[in-house]
């Protein structure tokens, strides 16, 4: 039982990480109707930005704020101007492929231009272990989970409860109608990507101590996050959390009790089961009536 | 030999607390043009969708020529000779108008494997052109359907339903957004196909429409739906004279 | 021919990027030094670097390209899976090919043009096995390995080396390359109740394993191979690395003057500390230089022939870093080390003589830092 | 056929047949790889570009084809059996993979297929008794007469051209229209008697069969296979090739595969670039998409439209000038 | 009452590289209802889209109260008091009816939106019953009602409305027409496209007929209504000859 709990809690911590990465996907889907295949790299870049600021001697918090500003400019504004604006009206395929190209660019650019190494990353939380009834948990695990929770609910509330959040969703659903109502479409799109950039910074801070700052850290992160998001429901931010936790926990249990070699298949199996019964994901909204 | 072409019995469909269709029964005779009218939200479109397998009704039974087709999907119903149009525009936006019409009937020609390397227009080019001419969309015949005006798309949509010469066609607001002169054209077309087209087949129609001139002139019988229920079924004259219907739908 | 062309075919992207980049940097550093020193037989080396993307198919194509370019020798790929494929091309073209791959099978195919720059697992694992069996005296052993050709090859070799000893393997736990959460593997290791753990994975994963071991309160010996105690691992794992013991074929922390000099030069050139792959690339070039100078002319066939049985010593060629001997298969043999991480530093706790030196007694180190 | 079309075909034929004669081994290898990816992405173009099924699992079929060939050869069967066997097996598996597509679409489908790819990859990696696991399968043969790289190139060329023509015929038939209808508006398609189920499954199965043949040819080209080239990343690359080339353009894959296979190689050789060739490739893809969102092959259409509008405005100006 | 509100002068506009409006000029008076007529595909909707800045004119000027509005954003235009109800579906299907209304009022602020909502809902009782449904769950006519209501919320000075009668039941059409008349009498300018010509003419002041993007007729509505050959107008000159559709398919 202790073993089970140990696996369970470790899984929750990993799941929190997946959820954070997945949050960006659900945000972009709900508020811009796009998918960003470079989302993992969007976490990688701020991680290195922060490392740079920290190594220049800036305190942790200052580095984080500077990173957020820089990331909003690069991953928010520049991304929107350079890729989203020209491609928005062409549907999903071109944006998907452009972001695939972008991820190749960012990942390998970081490698060629800076380093192929993994770099340790300072943790927001003290290196502290708790032992509760035989289960060891680190402060970082708990902290990551709690912050992931907070960010998910904050994002969800913003989208659902504020008029700006709804205007952002409106843009994703029907751009022309949105502009007919006087919604400032470019600005809403910018908000979406700016928020996404800040979320990526937050994810970077929480995830990198475990994942390590490395040019390809986004690859595995992105992949799992996709499944987490889709299991939970792509059009719902809370879905990202639920999906992330489910994948994290089940993977861990499967690795211990079934076969570690097929651990990566766990997310897939859950996904298959979910689409069988609820194609729109566990918490996802049904697609709109078509006829 | 008075077997009805279409027989709907006690059809119900609810969305949560909303009883969109609340126990509708009616019959359509072979060769009949049957109108369905009623205020907005009275359940007409939902009735069509549940009859055609687009959504699953809660209860009820649908018979086509005496055969139970309640469980059939849109595909099977089409294969059994039922065509339809939708209330919202449903064309193939990236295909040309002519291709839209050809693809609308090609599956009724030959076998699937026979079609694999058959000529691209399945021999339907002439028929498509005739319909295009009839709806006066020749000048956009080679344009992508998605780039047409609303009314032009509506016409393409209607023309598609006729390409395979179905025995029964269900039309959901065919005249919405269509120029009055062509409304007359549609009316004539329906009458032609209904009476005795060249093929010798006699087609029947069920038409939802808010254009009263059109409905009253065209339909043999009309059903009025209100709040998901049948308020009246009768000839145009009867419906026009029905006080209840006047109050609920037609207005003074 | 004005220069001696070397193809550097390495993993610069994909899963092997870290290893490949280190290897490449090592090769380039050696080439720069040798050229600055007047080159070989009065000619300078020229390197052409290409990226295999960690993909064997690409590696094969690039080797063909190198052949088309008429290079004198080929360095890389580092990944065993890639060299297994690409060496068919260099063999066909009779071009000496130096690899960083450690899988035993590479040199077993009877290819006269393939040469190691490091131990094969079949050389290293017996040394590890002996340590586990004789020093740690573990009766039972759990193994966490990475599920790729590198990890599986190591697993096979250590199993072979332990067969017939009284150390029993009680758990073989596979993990993925790039895996982040090691709670399940570590838990399994704990459940197996083994006397010691053998951890065999790449650097980052090794660091994560060490951290998870600490988290779950593992107190028994943790033993590994080169990748377990590298400086990178220590940087990444922090405190959790302390106490880990590993057999190391090449380590920048070895108390050997030539290696210390290398470490400093490398760090100066690239701003970070080389791992063993950097040393492989670097020493490989010097081994080639030694062979060419032995033959005295630029003849690929002759050089390849001369490599077999070649002995290179650090007094003549400090660049080979340690005295080394190539056998008839292209494998190399030399001294190696047992190291332990203490206070965040690798410390050599024993020097292990070459396998074929006959005398296998573990000596205590002569010098300590 | 128009004269200009005939001339282009002749030029292409000469190019394809003559170019390898001027290339060394590596050039031939690259060209062969390109053809193999043309074949594989032609299949994907059917699934994605024509039928609109967002598949991110194509590399799995490529892999299944490759392993089928390798294992059959190891078991002593003829190379000529390997090709149809790979095609048939992939066709069957493709049919199965089509089933999720009947339930989910767009991104959901993309991830169902991506998951399928992961599953196949895991099998290839873990089931060592069959696939050799990460050690792979070495020394895969070619047909005896085609052992030379040049001859093998022509073998691959023959397959690519033959299967290309077959697909061309298929897409011009009513099937081609049905696939397009399926992509544009499945609901309307179904109400017109177009069997969504059959065409969806077929679009996957046929696409898969093409990938299977390509994979079988690939195994014999590299003569060694292991799971890595058939992982999810490869599927994503194939998807990229289709979209960059122009989804729904018959020749899109020819251009797309050139971008995905040849451009990185070319960038490597540009002096001063070598270290940066992958970032540059990524940037080039972004640039191409932003410039031509409908793919490279939409360029002629765009030029034509520009010309027409110029003529139209000239005509307007002329009309306006009249009193 | 007779100042010019909307003025098109020699406007050329179209899609991609294909011009639909060809040197179109016309005026609409303040506080009047101007009806745009013409066969399907004549360019009626294109006129409204160009006026509302969704298409850029290639040539010519568009003025509102004498000031050019070319190049203004929709937000600017809404601020000037113009509202647009396009043809077809224009709701956010995944948001609720109430949220759709709220977004309709995004330019006037939350308070005004809340204040004016009851009166709009009064006019469309069916919509009122469905406030918390997803907009995509509404019937076709209900959706159209919601769209019209959403625009009325703004109390615009100029309404551009594209075929309001599509999908509406006859009684509701009558009500909407009556309402438009009332608003016009109170000073609102209405530019309406309608195929439901006879009813629309009854409430209109002026009628403009387009054909292939060219103005073919501009007359007071009453004059047209009295015209015994009114039918011809529906067809457009080019088609007048073969007015009766071919007999067989
Ligand atoms: N997005 C588009 N791309 C290309 N052409 C278009 C597009 N939209 C409309 N058109 C063309 O412009 C012409 C005018 O279209 P418009 O929508 O203005 O017509 P309309 O008069 O409103 O017709 P309807 O009564 O059918 O609504 C049509 O011939 C149509 O084919
Ligand atoms: N998917 C759904 N979810 C919830 N309610 C629905 C759904 N579909 C339809 N309804 C409701 O059912 C009722 C009937 O709708 P239906 O579309 O059948 O009306 P209709 O008679 O076609 O109206 P109209 O003339 O406006 O097209 C409406 O009140 C509608 O809001
Ligand atoms: C760098 C190492 C992890 C790779 C290993 N040398 C191999 O044989 O594949
Ligand atoms: Mg309806
Ligand atoms: Mg219109």
From TrEMBL, chain A:
Bilayer-spanning residue ranges: 6-29, 50-78, 90-108, 129-154, 189-213, 225-248, 254-277
Predominant cellular place of this UniProt entry's protein: membrane
Subcellular location(s) per record: Cell membrane
Keywords: Amino-acid transport, Cell membrane, Membrane, Transmembrane, Transmembrane helix, Transport
Membrane topology reported for the UniProt record: Multi-pass membrane protein
InterPro entries: ABC_transp_permease (IPR001851), BCAA_transport_permease (IPR052157)
Pfam families linked: BPD_transp_2
UniProt similarity note: Belongs to the binding-protein-dependent transport system permease family. LivHM subfamily.
Protein's recorded name: Branched-chain amino acid transport system permease protein
Organism (species): Rhodoferax ferrireducens
TrEMBL record, chain B:
Keyword Nucleotidyltransferase: no
Pfam families assigned to the protein according to its UniProt record, in alphabetical order: ABC_tran (PF00005), BCA_ABC_TP_C (PF12399)
Domain ABC transporter: 6-252
A GO molecular function held by the record: ATP binding
Lineage: superkingdom: Bacteria
Keywords: ATP-binding, Cell membrane, Membrane, Nucleotide-binding, Transport
InterPro entries according to UniProt: AAA+_ATPase, ABC_AA/LPS_Transport, ABC_transporter-like_ATP-bd, ABC_transporter-like_CS, BCA_ABC_TP_C, P-loop_NTPase
Protein's name in the database: Branched-chain amino acid transport system ATP-binding protein
From TrEMBL, chain D:
Compartments in which it is found: Cell membrane
TM annotation in the entry: 28-48, 55-73, 79-99, 151-171, 201-225, 237-263, 275-292
InterPro entries cross-referenced by the UniProt entry: ABC_transp_permease, LivM-like
Tagged with keyword Cell membrane: yes
Database matches in Pfam families: BPD_transp_2 (PF02653)
Keywords, ordered alphabetically: Cell membrane, Membrane, Transmembrane, Transmembrane helix
Membrane-related topology note: Multi-pass membrane protein
Main location group: membrane
Record CDD domains: TM_PBP1_LivM_like (cd06581)
Coiled coil (UniProt feature): none
Keyword Membrane on entry: yes
PANTHER family in alphabetical order: HIGH-AFFINITY BRANCHED-CHAIN AMINO ACID TRANSPORT SYSTEM PERMEASE, HIGH-AFFINITY BRANCHED-CHAIN AMINO ACID TRANSPORT SYSTEM PERMEASE PROTEIN LIVM
Name of the protein described by the UniProt record: Branched-chain amino acid transport system permease protein
Organism of derivation: Rhodoferax ferrireducens
UniProtKB/TrEMBL annotation, chain E:
Signal peptide segment: none
InterPro entries registered for this protein in UniProt: AAA+_ATPase (IPR003593), ABC_transporter-like_ATP-bd (IPR003439), BCAA_Transport_ATP-bd_LivF (IPR052156), P-loop_NTPase (IPR027417)
Domain ABC transporter: 6-237
SUPFAM superfamilies per UniProt: P-loop containing nucleoside triphosphate hydrolases (SSF52540)
Domain of life (superkingdom): Bacteria
GO molecular function terms noted in the UniProt entry: ATP binding
Keywords in alphabetical order: Amino-acid transport, ATP-binding, Cell membrane, Membrane, Nucleotide-binding, Transport
Assigned protein family: Belongs to the ABC transporter superfamily.
Protein's UniProt name: Branched-chain amino acid transport system ATP-binding protein
Organism of origin: Rhodoferax ferrireducens
Lineage: Bacteria, Pseudomonadati, Pseudomonadota, Betaproteobacteria, Burkholderiales
